[in-house]
Amino acid sequence: MWASIVESLRRRRCSPHVRLAEVGVAKGMKIADVGAGYGFFAFPAAEVVGDEGLVYAIEPDPKRAAEMTKDAEEEGVKNLKVLEAGAEDLSRIATGDVDIAMSMSSFHHFVDHRKALLEMKRIVKPGGLVYLRDIKPGRVFKHGSRSDEFRRTVSHELPNAEFEEDPHYIAARFRA
Ligand SMILES: C[S@@+](CC[C@H](N)C(=O)[O-])C[C@H]1O[C@@H](n2cnc3c(N)ncnc32)[C@H](O)[C@@H]1O
Questions:
Q1: Which of 11, 56, 66, 171 is most buried, with most CB under 10 Å away?
Q2: Least confident of 41-45, 51-55, 138-142, 147-151
Q3: Which ligand 1 atom is nearest residue 40's CA?
Q4: Model confidence over 86-137: pLDDT tens digits?
Q5: Which of 4-8, 11-15, 37-41 has the lowest mean pLDDT?
Q6: How do the domains of the chain map onto residue ranges?
Q7: Superfamily name with CATH number, domain 2-175
């Protein structure tokens, strides 16, 4: 209940569809949303990719994963597959299976960043995209990824990743 109020306030501030278009999510694609939470991006992504596409909503917290499964059933969303897993073990997804592996505001939660990045890279097809966007600690967010650490950790596993940042967010794009 509280989560859905927070999500609807957030939706008014930032349209998930606009963000997904910036990332490059499009009709027919296979997407992995790693650390999907309650599905703020995963459900809109399922709408965008349509019946010929698929979204894996990957979330280690059983409560959040169960909530997404329930919502998908209730809303008849058939192209969203919830996987209860952490970013460090995406073994239920085949190598080269997805067009985009994205992580929205979840990177700072990952337990083993190296493993998580290698897994995200593994599941993306050649020419596909690993996209990571995280909050930065500061006046607005109390926690998140520090810019220098984020850049260092990501560049180590995903050389040639391109970064963009503003005062509150940092993002990286890596073409496989
Ligand atoms: C701030 S929420 C963001 C959720 C969603 N991406 C969004 O934008 O609304 C961070 C999520 O990362 C999840 N998380 C925690 N540890 C994780 C891990 N090791 N791998 C993947 N996700 C993780 C949390 O359970 C939580 O749902």
A1: 56
A2: 138-142
A3: 9
A4: 999 999 999 999 999 999 999 999 999 999 999 999 999 999 999 999 999 9
A5: 4-8
A6: 2-175
A7: Vaccinia Virus protein VP39 (3.40.50.150)
153 lines ligand 1 (CB under 6 A): no
pLDDT tens digits, 91-101: 999 999 999 99
Residue-wise DSSP of 58-94 = E-S-HHHHHHHHHHHHHHT--SEEEE---TT--TTS-
Provide the token pair at 159: 């050389």
Instruction: For the chain, give the mean pLDDT.
Output: 94
Q: Are 57 and 36 within 8 A, CB to CB? A: yes
Q: From 54, 43, 49, select the one nearest 79 (Cα to Cα).
A: 54
| Separation CA 175–CA 131 (nearest Å) | 9
Closest among 85, 65, 69, 87 to 77, alpha carbons compared: 69
Ligand 1 centroid – CA 109 distance (Å): 6
Q: What is the mean pLDDT of residues 5-31?
A: 87
Going by alpha carbons, the residue nearest to atom 13 of ligand 1 is: 35
CB 87 within 8 A of CB 34: yes
Please say whether the beta carbons of 78 and 54 come within 8 A: no
Residue nearest to atom 16 of ligand 1 (CA): 109
